[in-house]
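thought: user wants a sequence for this fold. calling inverse folding tool.
action: design(structure=
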């Protein structure tokens, strides 16, 4: 049984290495969410899948590769609402806290997969961090400021 676990672990390590190599070689700036894995483990439906995927190990391998190849890795604050902000107009949709909602729909007409929308918001987050050296979620940042940022980046 120990050999089987070792083999699975080696396969997983190889996979993480290959995937992170692809990511790091393709992008100079990588933004990821600072996910509270413990709170996600408490969600019954995703507990087994998240533990099997070992996100913590993946993030560590990615971080190490970014250092090795001198790439910028930004960890978005846990309070950043990447899946709740419309990546087109910047309006916050608090109903998207419900993980069962898979389509993001906004009054501005923008509609996309929840994860695609979140990925765009993380991209904007990373670019803002690099340009302005911080992303303040306190001190009165609101949807309008994020929308202005997105318009600047799109130009």
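)
observation: tool returned 155 residues.
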């Amino acid at each position: 049984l120990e050999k089987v676990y070792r083999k699975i672990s080696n396969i997983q390590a190889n996979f993480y290495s290959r995937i992170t190599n692809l990511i790091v070689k393709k992008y100079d700036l990588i933004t990821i969410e600072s996910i509270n894995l413990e709170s996600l483990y408490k969600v019954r439906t995703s507990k087994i899948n998240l533990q099997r995927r070992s996100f913590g190990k993946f993030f560590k391998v990615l971080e190490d590769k970014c250092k090795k190849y001198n790439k910028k890795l930004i960890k978005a604050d846990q309070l950043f609402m990447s899946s709740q902000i419309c990546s087109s107009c910047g309006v916050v949709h608090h109903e998207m806290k419900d993980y069962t909602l898979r389509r993001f729909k906004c009054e501005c007409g923008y509609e996309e997969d929840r994860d695609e929308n979140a990925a765009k918001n993380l991209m904007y987050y990373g670019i803002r961090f690099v340009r302005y050296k911080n992303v303040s979620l306190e001190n009165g940042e609101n949807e309008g400021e994020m929308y202005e940022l997105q318009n600047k980046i799109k130009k």
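thought: summarizing for user.
answer: Here is the designed sequence. Residues 137-143 have pLDDT under 50 and may be disordered.
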